Amino acid sequence: MKIVKLVIALLVFASTIQAQSPEEKGLSVARAADKADQGFESSLVNLKMVLRNKQGQESTRFMENKTLELTEDGDKSLIVFKSPKDVEGTATLTFTHKTTSDDQWLYLPAIKRVKRISSDNKSGPFMGSEFAYEDLSSNEVEKYGYKFLKNEQFNGSNNAVVEQDPVDPKSGYKRRVVWYNLDKNYRLEKIEFYDRKNSLLKTLTYSDYKQYEGKYWRAGKFLMVNHQTGKETELFFEDWDLKSGLADTDFSQNSLRRAGR
Amino acid sequence: MEKLKRMSGQFGIAWAKWVIKRRWIVLILSILTFLAMGFGMSKLAFDGDYRVFFSKDNPQLQAYETFQRKYTQDDNVLIVVEPKDGKTFSKESLAAIEQLTTDSWQTPFSSRVDAITNFQHTYAVGDELYVEDLADNVGERNPDEIQKIKKIALSEPLLVNRLLNEKGTVSAVNITVKLPGEAITEGPEVTAYVREMVAKFEEAHPNLKTHLSGMIMLNSAFFEASAQDSSTLIPLMFLAIVLTIFLATRTISGTFSALLIIIFSIAAGMGFAGHLGIKLTPPSGAAPIIIMTLAVADSIHILITLMQGMRRGLPKREALIESLRVNFMPVFITSLTTVIGFLSMNTSEVPPFRDLGNITAVGMIAAFLFSVTALPAMMAILPVRVKVKEATVARSNKFFESIADLVIARRMPVLITSLVIIFGFGYLAFQNQLNDEFIKYFDSKISFRQDTDFISDNLTGIYNVEFSLGSGEPGGINNPGYLQKLQDFERWLEQQSEVIHVNSYAEVARQVNQSMHGDSLQYYAMPTNREEAAQYLLLYEMSLPFGLDLNNQINVDKSESRLTATIKNISTLEMVAFAKRAEEWLRSNTPANMHTLGISPTMMFAYLSGRQVLSMVTGTGLAIVLITIVLIFALRSLKYGLMSIVPNITPIAVGFGIWALLEGSINVGVSIVFGMTLGIIVDDTIHFLSKYLLARREHGYSVADAIKYAFTTVGRALLVTTIVLVSGFAILAQSSFGMNSGMAKMTSIIIVVALIIDFLLLPALLLVFTPEDKEEKLQAQPVASTE
């Protein structure tokens, strides 16, 4: 029954987008994707990051990620680093905002202090990887301008390809091109990142998807390839724990200190 | 032996008759060959990358490529901005620089842009860490804020002497580019973009003047130097050649035909390069000029004899046959030795010179073939007008006779004086110093040289030495022990007189440590705890913007960091000495994992000519052996073949001695000349000795008379060809590219010295070492068997 409903919804949706401009159509895809992911409340996941340079040399790090879903503002997230040993217990707390700069704090266990990062820079490499912080933070609809490009068959599914233009002038990107899987509840399949001079910089591919709670698609693996340097980074996610019962109090500066212990 | 001689003459006659009979077919086939070979020229492309000067197995290149794989490969463009009023920190200048920095991100293949405006200024307020552009939205800043920016910038060790001078009158925007290396047009694309950008910038800001440097601009300069040579030297060379041929032969159709032969030969050499996919470089780009210079001799020899015969009253056909009879062998042998000389360049350490050698060798082979096919064919077809006149004894023969008389009368003094002078210059030759400062490859006509000199005088150094310092374990760069040693090395380098600036992770570590302790000056020091250092680094890295990360200074697993020492304009010998001193300091003061070698493009060039000289020893040795064997056969005498080594090699020693007095420093281009000049100067010896031996063997002359005979018959011709060769190389010596001009200058000197030695030392040697009383047999006798 659910699937039938979904198909009907999609058909209705498809018929409405006929009359839209590419910008409106892009925005509506983004909204639909945002809506499709609503209601997971909070998530908890362990992840492994593998950095690999052009010569195949690897470096691995582990971390834990907690996310709290918010609808009126951007999500809150807390990342705790488990390795390398030097930074074990270091944790970041981020409040994403829909229209203003995100707030970010870092707990440094070596000096047992929380430091606030007052920087608009969200595009530098995350832990030396090919992911920028902005690639990993939550995809708030308001952070981009949209333009629907085309529908495309991708990996045997029907995809909407939408261009996203970052609103933040500090973004490292001129634009991103995102593949939304229309057959799988708008889950992301691929993102291409174009640098400021509009050359293809990186491609992020999602794989090993699993559906949770009968609704939410979560990828088991992110692969980010930098085309300009030949370096790549893989993110492996253990089982996602959705609706994990986390509360606002788990995303405070105190919880940041606690998480680090 | 006489049979052989006669046979070669007969071969020449038969050849000439055949060519004349089938002149049209020969000409058409020649033209078709020219077109087929010349078609390759359409595939020629210029490779300006400085890396072309290094062979794949060059250890410095390999070390540098390994180094670049650890960090990021960075070629760069340095845009230096000079406000005419000297005020970098005026609102207007600063705002313009901010805009230029933003625009620079649009440069094709750019991965990073560093300037004073986007410098990541780090400071703290309480527990808040600020990492932000030193100067953004300059247009909205008030004078106080701009003063503050100025104060911070001028006291920032990571900026001063690198992107900003101490007085604050000149600053720079450094664009790092990563070329994918898929097409050789990538570098020129960057250059074109940057040039257009700065042109617009200067137009919009008349107070600001820009200067361009960096590795990408170096690559462009290679191209521009070559283009400059092609557009100025080649037309000049053509003019010189037309003039020379006409003056020597006095025939318009002959001059025209010879010119065609030369064009055919160039097309063959350059087409060969195109067909084989050899990329043009400044040295190999000089091949047409060298082919022209050398190919002209073949044509002149054949035409002169033709015209002499016709002036004596011979019909054109007979004169042509006579010319080929006389010249076929000498032209063949001199071409052969020249080809051997140029092929010996294949042992060179520098690939473009191997290409130059091979292209010229092919051109010379073509010149020989066309000179004995297309040239006589055309001369048989075209009308040749000539006035029959009595053979006049050239005035200059008197001059050569007097030289002969002098040598004969004072053989011992001439021999001893010559040898003393040769040994004197030979000693001086070793006083030359190898020097390959790549900026000095370009003369002041090339904008790269002007701009780079400006930068050296006003902002920072162009040369640098890189060190990748290992910590021995992943994450080890956060080890306080490592950081302390890194700082010690940095401090030591800063005290060295050669060093202008040191850029290393140590400065970042100190600044972040300070900011983490409320910007307290006493914490402007290395962190003392490894976890602390690692966590500060994590925090700092998270705060950096796109493209300004530390990946260019720290490797992936944080086990090594990079240190760059910018050094003054010193000779490459001093650079090598400096690098060795630094390497030695590391060995005596740091743990084994930090021991490393200083590397960089600068160092690659610094070691290049030393390696080149070593590699040329084999090539030159081989050339000497092969050329001597050719001479033994050509002169049909082991004794004279071996004796010829003396006048063939000594000019090179003397040439380098003279160079020591004139210039004193040798670059890669100069060091290449051994083999190639050998192949050229040997012609003098061949001509002189063959005429001498002819007189002795056929006419039964005494040694003294045979020497006189040699002087009067070939003295003038040798002088003329020397003038032709020297003027050709003198034109190439005007090249704006130092390797080419050095090579050409040295070759000119050696050719002149070779003639002098052939006129003085060679006859003296013949006189002193030939037993006068005994009638010499044609068979060879060892040189040692003397009176």
From TrEMBL, chain A:
> Is Signal a UniProt keyword of this protein?
yes
Q: Which residues form a coiled coil?
A: none
Q: Which domain of life is it from?
A: Bacteria
| Signal sequence bounds | 1-19
Which intervals hold domain Uncharacterized protein TP-0789? 74-258
| Keywords, sorted A to Z | Lipoprotein, Signal
User: What protein name applies here?
Assistant: Outer membrane lipoprotein-sorting protein
Automatic annotation (TrEMBL), chain B:
* UniProt keywords, alphabetically: Cell membrane, Membrane, Transmembrane, Transmembrane helix
How this chain sits in the membrane, per its record, is: Multi-pass membrane protein
Write down a Pfam family by its short name. MMPL
Provide the protein name. Answer: MMPL family transporter
State which residue ranges cross the membrane: 232-249, 256-278, 284-307, 328-347, 359-382, 412-430, 613-635, 642-662, 668-689, 717-737, 749-769
Locate the SSD domain: which residues? 256-381
**SUPFAM superfamilies (alphabetical):** Multidrug efflux transporter AcrB transmembrane domain
Classify the main location.
membrane
User: PROSITE patterns per the record?
Assistant: SSD (PS50156)
Q: Which InterPro entries match?
A: MMPL_dom (IPR004869), Mycobact_MmpL (IPR050545), SSD (IPR000731)
Question: Where is this protein found?
Answer: Cell membrane
Domain of life, per UniProt, equals: Bacteria
